[in-house]
């Protein structure tokens, strides 16, 4: 790499095609929102990010789940990706960790992340999801007020963080942006678009501070080895 951003240290997502679109990966210690409708692959995206981080880069990861049970996510990943033969081993070695936040309380949520990251020296964190986190608060307004504290807190962690966010519309044209997306360093959008008798999976990078990146809307597919995107192809 040459020119602008050449010296930026990067964290590879481990998603084939995406790191190429990001010119090497997410700038280290940035916070990226991964946003999409139900079933678009957000949880898979986050799980693969931690799996590849542990497997290929020896980085410890923490998956902070506010919604789904850890066992459920782990079983789904094993079923979906038979080629992840060392997934259980990495879980046993505590290189990949699924952490469930029991109590619906923002301070408790921050404590769980803080103590986990410190104890295990985690470098990759996934929060699933900010949409559920918002429900910890009395109103969207209260969430927005605390969002600054959250991003401040994450900024002091020395971790590269994925913040998963639900989106209610499957339409690319109807995609709306919330404050989380404005404040985050990056936004990656996932889609499962209805097209005639089937659905098409797609991905686009809306923004990524600290690097240049592809602006293409590209197809995304599931394989036995994980999700893959195709930087040179078009969804439609
Ligand atoms: N190996 C696979 N092949 C095809 N589809 C898969 C595979 N693994 C998961 N899926 C599909 O992906 C969707 C779930 O992905 P998930 O990451 O849980 O999405 P989200 O978190 O966005 O709701 C489901 O519709 C499931 O059928
Ligand atoms: Mg999910």
Can you describe what's shown?
This protein has 236 residues and is an alpha/beta fold. Helix content is 33%, strand content 27%. It has 8 helices and 11 strands. The chain has helices spanning 18-21, 42-57, 70-80, 87-92, 106-120, 130-134, 140-155, 179-183, and strands spanning 10-11, 26-27, 31-36, 61-65, 96-100, 124-128, 160-166, 186-195, 198-208, 218-223, 226-229. The strands form 2 sheets. Strands 5-4-6-7-3-8-9-10-11 form a 9-stranded mixed beta sheet, with helices on both faces. It has a two-stranded antiparallel sheet with strand order 1-2. A hairpin with a 2-residue loop joins strand 10 (218-223) and strand 11 (226-229). The longest helix is centred in the first third of the chain and has 16 residues, at 42-57. It is globular. Bound molecules: adenosine-5'-diphosphate (ADP) and magnesium ion.
Keywords:
binds magnesium ion; two-stranded antiparallel ribbon; single chain; 236 residues; binds adenosine-5'-diphosphate; nine-stranded mixed β-sheet; alpha/beta; 27% strand
Q: Secondary structure elements and their pairing?
A:
Layout (H helix, E strand, L loop, with lengths): L9 E2 L6 H4 L4 E2 L3 E6 L5 H16 L3 E5 L4 H11 L6 H6 L3 E5 L5 H15 L3 E5 L1 H5 L5 H16 L4 E7 L12 H5 L2 E10 L2 E11 L9 E6 L2 E4 L7
Parallel strand pairs: 3-7, 3-8, 4-5, 4-6, 6-7
Antiparallel strand pairs: 1-2, 8-9, 9-10, 10-11
The site of adenosine-5'-diphosphate has 10 residues, from helix 2.
> By helix and strand content, what is the structural category?
alpha/beta
- What's the total number of strands? 11
Give the strand order, joined by hyphens, for the main sheet: 5-4-6-7-3-8-9-10-11
Helical content band = 25-40%
User: Helix and strand string, N-terminal first?
Assistant: EHEEHEHHEHEHHEHEEEE
Q: Which cofactor or ligand species appear?
A: adenosine-5'-diphosphate, magnesium ion
User: Mean of residue pLDDT?
Assistant: 95
Shape from CA axes? globular
For the record, give the distance between the C-alpha atoms at the N and C termini, rounded to a whole number.
Answer: 30 Å
Largest sheet: 9 strands, mixed
Rg computed from alpha carbons, rounded to a whole number of angstroms: 17 Å
Which residue ranges are poorly predicted, with pLDDT under 50 across at least 5 consecutive positions? none
Number of helices: 8
Strand content: 25-35%
- Which assembly state applies to the chains in this document? single chain
């Amino acid at each position: 790499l040459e020119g602008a951003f050449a010296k930026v240290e990067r964290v590879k997502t481990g998603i084939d095609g995406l790191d190429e679109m990001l010119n090497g990966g997410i700038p280290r210690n940035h916070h990226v929102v991964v946003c999409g409708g139900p079933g678009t692959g957000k949880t898979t995206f986050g799980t693969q990010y931690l799996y590849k981080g542990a497997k290929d880069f020896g980085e410890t990861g923490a998956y902070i789940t506010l919604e789904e049970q850890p066992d459920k996510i782990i079983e789904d990943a094993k079923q979906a990706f038979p080629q992840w033969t060392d997934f259980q081993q990495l879980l046993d070695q505590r290189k990949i960790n699924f952490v469930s936040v029991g109590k619906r309380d923002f301070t408790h949520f921050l404590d769980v992340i803080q103590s986990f990251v410190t104890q295990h020296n985690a470098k990759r964190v996934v929060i699933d999801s900010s949409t559920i986190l918002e429900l910890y608060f009395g109103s969207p307004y209260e969430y927005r007020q605390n969002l600054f504290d959250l991003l401040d807190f994450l900024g002091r962690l020395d971790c590269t963080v994925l913040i998963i966010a639900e989106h209610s519309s499957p339409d690319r044209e109807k995609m709306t942006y919330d404050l989380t997306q404005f404040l985050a360093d990056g936004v990656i959008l996932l889609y499962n678009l209805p097209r005639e008798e089937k659905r098409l999976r797609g991905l686009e990078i809306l923004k990524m501070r600290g690097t240049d990146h592809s602006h293409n809307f590209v197809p995304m597919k599931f394989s036995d080895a994980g999700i893959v995107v195709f930087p040179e192809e078009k969804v439609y």
